[in-house]
Amino acid sequence: MRSLTERETEVLTGLGEGLSNARIAARLSLSEATVKSHVSRMLVKLEVENRTQAGLLAYDAGLVTR
Prior knowledge:
Elements: H1 6-16, H2 21-28, H3 32-46, H4 51-60
Helix pairs in contact: 1-2, 1-3, 1-4, 2-3
């Protein structure tokens, strides 16, 4: 997780909470396209294939507590 930027970590937290790109964008005051870019870069950095796997990593890392 250290390789992620602060913003990517915030987006990852949203994924872990099960939020859509649109909801993450609204929460962080970003465009949906920007969130999609962050998600794409995160998937590569985290070496996972999809947003579900990334969300599970967020949960395992303690970014999401529910």
